Amino acid sequence: MAGPAPAVADVRRAVRAGLAGLAGLEPGALVLVACSGGADSLALAAATASVAPRAGLRAGAVTVDHGLQEGSAARAGAVAGVLRRLGLDPVEVAAVRVGGRGGPEAAARDARYAALRSAAAAHGAAAVLLGHTRDDQAETVLLGLARGSGARSLAGMAAVGVLPGGPAGPGGPGGAQGPALLRPLLGLDRGTTRAACAALGLAPWDDPHNADPAYARARARHRALPALEAALGPGVAAALARTADLLRDDADALDAWASRAAAACTGPDGTLDAAGLAAEPAAVRRRVLRRAALAAGCPAGALTAGHLAALDGLLTRWRGQGPLDLPGGVGAARRCGRLSLARRAAGGGSGA
């Protein structure tokens, strides 16, 4: 008897390896596939339905209706029907309301993650699987380069993590932080997932937003990456994904260094030893300062490289300058060799 088509085997192999690498999965644990009905997540769902039971796990799925297109509810229902026919159980349709904070792409992503957190909590899932591929990783790195982002952003998406945001979830591999997040297809390209769907007789749905030039990711996918491939030759997407892997190792090492530096420089009152922190390399200082600013209440999306450079000036270019105003009503000031970051009192000036 012939085995599965090569693309189907590749996707199943990737899912099998991803599940095997998740620490703390108990026999009988539930894993949920986030499936939009596109080729990537549909291939992931089919592979998980096949692989998970053989690994002693239960497999379910969630499809999110963002409500952004006419007929989206009916489409989500149709996707749910396909997922049930694949043998996934439970299957949930999660309808969300997409706000406007951070732009349409970020708002849709936030709403989607919130729905996935809610579904994982409701069903007691230990992990949520996402269908991001190597091509998605390349697009993420390219968008980070265009923004002038640092190493952590250019490191792209991690294969294993914790479902971001929100309150603590069930006690799966993510522990008190929530369910694990797994992206098992980051080593495969988009062509493989489409070939897997074709071999299985599955008809993916192509979201028109993925081709809409109003969205930055769509422009990266359909304009920027093809132009780079044409100019530099094939393999650009794979090279960008490899770059993400290398930078993730570097970013992890610098984050660990910054954690040690923060512990050594932070006093009982939460202020930072200016001279001690100034002696650290710039990459470490910026990480410590960013963490301190976020902890004081600065919104992550509003805290820019310019803000961090100004904060760093209180350490390395100290000339007695006054307090700084930071996003979120946070003030930063240096006094008596200590750097403090705190929310300003209502109606008051910045400082500590």
UniProtKB/TrEMBL annotation:
Residue ranges annotated for the tRNA(Ile)-lysidine/2-thiocytidine synthase N-terminal domain, each copy included? 31-222
* Alphabetical GO biological process terms: tRNA modification
Q: Give the matching HAMAP family.
A: tRNA_Ile_lys_synt
A Pfam family the protein falls into? ATP_bind_3
One cellular-component annotation, GO: cytoplasm
User: Record's Gene3D superfamilies?
Assistant: 1.20.59.20, HUPs
- Comment, domains: The N-terminal region contains the highly conserved SGGXDS motif, predicted to be a P-loop motif involved in ATP binding.
- Recorded family membership: Belongs to the tRNA(Ile)-lysidine synthase family.
Boundaries of every tRNA(Ile)-lysidine synthase substrate-binding domain copy = 272-339
Q: Do you know which InterPro entries this protein is assigned to?
A: Rossmann-like_a/b/a_fold, TilS/TtcA_N, tRNA_Ile_lys_synt, tRNA_Ile_lys_synt_N, tRNA_Ile_lys_synt_subst-bd
Record GO terms (molecular function):
ATP binding; tRNA(Ile)-lysidine synthase activity
Q: What does this protein do?
A: Ligates lysine onto the cytidine present at position 34 of the AUA codon-specific tRNA(Ile) that contains the anticodon CAU, in an ATP-dependent manner. Cytidine is converted to lysidine, thus changing the amino acid specificity of the tRNA from methionine to isoleucine.
Q: What is its main location?
A: cytoplasm
Q: What is this protein called?
A: tRNA(Ile)-lysidine synthase
State the EC number(s).
Answer: 6.3.4.19
Q: Which organism is it from?
A: Vallicoccus soli
